[in-house]
Amino acid sequence: SGHQSLTLIRCRRNTGATQASLLVTCSDNHAPPTDLDHSSRRHESECLPRNNLFENLFCGESRTAAAIPVSSEVSEVAVGRLSARMVFADAGAFGAEGGGELKKNRFLSTTREVEDLNQYWYSNRTITHMALDVEEVCAAEGTRAAFLSTPSVYFSLSKEVRARSWCFDLDTQWHKEPGYVCYNFQTPVDFPGAAELRGTFDMVIIDPPFITREVWEKYAETARFLLRPGGGGHVMASTIQENAPFMRELLGVEPQVFQPSIPTLVYQYALYASYESKNLGVKNPEIPDDD
């Protein structure tokens, strides 16, 4: 069925024909941080440089998206590209300049989506609602948030909360960011500083580059590894609505009223949370009502 095909891929607006699926890996020789204070340590990551992203695909195994069934509603497959071309939708599509009640979003104005990494940025309004939730959950001194493949939200936080947050991502363009950790979901608990970071976070925000259960199981393993023991950790995530049953099973999250706007994605995502959220409990005016 169309829904079943949607669980396999993420599809980009205005792309070409079927593309090959790519995943890059990080090198293994990372020294863990000596402490958890951003002010006293910076990760000089040894992840693969961006011009060598394609030399290590799935740990040496190249996989393609050939023969994946696509519904009539999703006519293009874009789980990655073989070229190193970077794309960026017009800033207006993301509301990057703000206007009205929204402030200008510097990340959206300056950061391109990398198709090879299957990056899709949320709109300014969506980022604002997600970031407000993080700011409220992590308002108390000492609370910490981990952002798994969600750099747009991480870089949109206030300075105070961002200083207590960490950005786990494969994209090496942020390797000089104090809170950056080179993260490859294929090795869910094997990343720089894993031993020191284990069980130290109050909140995890997740948006994987792929939407299959297999990938979500790995991200869920990372989330459980990072959250403080004893339960009560906050989880925010985004994926398709059809994934709700296994999202509930893996992470204890439920779909929220607020639906995210992702301008370059051809189908609608849902936001999930494991807690009651005021910011995600309202409708997003960017998303039209269903007929």
UniProtKB/TrEMBL annotation:
Keywords: Cytoplasm, Methyltransferase, Transferase. Pfam families: N6-adenineMlase. One of its GO terms (cellular component) is cytoplasm. The keyword Acyltransferase does not apply. One of its GO terms (biological process) is methylation. GO terms for molecular function: nucleic acid binding; protein-lysine N-methyltransferase activity. It is found in: Cytoplasm. Its main location: cytoplasm. InterPro entries: DNA_methylase_N6_adenine_CS, Efm5/EEF1AKMT1, Mlase_EEF1AKMT1/ZCCHC4, SAM-dependent_MTases_sf. PROSITE patterns: N6_MTASE. PANTHER family: EEF1A LYSINE METHYLTRANSFERASE 1, NUCLEIC ACID BINDING PROTEIN. This is Uncharacterized protein.
